[in-house]
């Protein structure tokens, strides 16, 4: 079986995360106003950007939480085999989609489809984490220092507190888009405040 150098794979992943975080803020453009010296006009233009700022903050911390949990996964494995590599690539595929889904939600914060689309895109990211965790659970030979219980809790939590909440968030957009914003923020807060289990946090975002 072919194995990849873990440090090189993680280095590439970290580079991708850095690019994604940078692209998120680039979606916020400086507003154009007719009268450059008008404080009131500039203030109004900045107010119209508020939804984009909120979307950016949600996505920035979401990606940051993803990076933390992705890092913990790599701390828990001792080798990267071919299947793990491509499951990880699938996860990165969906994470790299965040700049687009964030821009869409920020530009159309009152559009149910746009806000729901963000949740659906996040759902696929969560499923990417789930498949990665599932593979770790089924193949303990690639893990290091994790008991069967810890591997199971990691898989369970990635399902309960990731994809399911994103499904609810995407669905809630058709009731009121602000409810979805709240759901997306709750996911972040959960994983930011989640306690550790044993030597490592087994909570996993998604």
Question: Describe it for me?
Answer:
This protein has nine helices and two strands; from the N terminus they run E-H-H-H-E-H-H-H-H-H-H. By secondary structure, the protein is mainly alpha-helical. The longest helix has 27 residues. The chain is elongated. The two termini are 29 Å apart.
**Helix content percent band:** over 70%
Q: Structural class, from secondary structure content? A: mainly alpha
Q: Give a quick account of the main beta sheet: strands, pairing sense, barrel closure.
A: 2 strands, antiparallel
Count of helical stretches: 9
What's the quaternary structure here? single chain
Give the ordered list of helices and strands. Answer: EHHHEHHHHHH
Strand content: under 5%
User: Any idea what the radius of gyration is?
Assistant: 19 Å
Mean pLDDT equals 85
Strand order of the largest sheet: 1-2
- Strands, total number: 2
Give the topology, please.
Blueprint: E1 3-4, H1 6-26, H2 39-48, H3 50-76, E2 80-81, H4 82-95, H5 98-107, H6 112-138, H7 148-160, H8 163-172, H9 177-193
Antiparallel strand pairs: 1-2
Helix pairs in contact: 1-3, 1-5, 3-5, 3-9, 4-6, 5-6, 6-7, 6-8, 6-9, 8-9
What is this structure, in a nutshell?
The protein has 206 residues and is mainly α. The chain has nine helices and two strands.
Name a few traits of the molecule.
206 residues; mainly alpha; 9 helices
């Amino acid at each position: 079986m072919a194995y990849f150098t873990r440090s090189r794979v993680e280095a590439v992943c970290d580079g991708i995360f850095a690019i994604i975080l940078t692209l998120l803020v680039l979606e916020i453009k400086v507003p154009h106003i007719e009268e450059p010296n008008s404080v009131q006009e500039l203030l109004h233009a900045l107010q119209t950007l508020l939804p984009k700022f909120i979307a950016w903050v949600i996505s920035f911390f979401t990606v940051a939480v993803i990076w933390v949990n992705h890092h913990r996964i790599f701390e828990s494995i001792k080798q990267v085999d071919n299947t793990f590599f491509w499951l990880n690539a699938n996860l990165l595929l969906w994470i790299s989609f965040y700049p687009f889904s964030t821009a869409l939600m920020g530009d159309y914060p009152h559009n149910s489809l746009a806000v729901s689309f963000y949740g659906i895109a996040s759902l696929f990211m969560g499923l990417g984490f789930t498949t990665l965790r599932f593979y770790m659970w089924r193949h303990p030979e690639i893990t290091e220092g994790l008991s069967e219980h810890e591997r199971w809790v990691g898989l369970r939590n990635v399902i309960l507190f990731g994809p399911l909440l994103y499904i609810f968030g995407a669905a809630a957009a058709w009731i009121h888009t602000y409810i979805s914003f709240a759901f997306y923020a709750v996911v972040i807060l959960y994983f930011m405040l989640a306690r550790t289990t044993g030597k490592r946090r087994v909570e996993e975002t998604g």
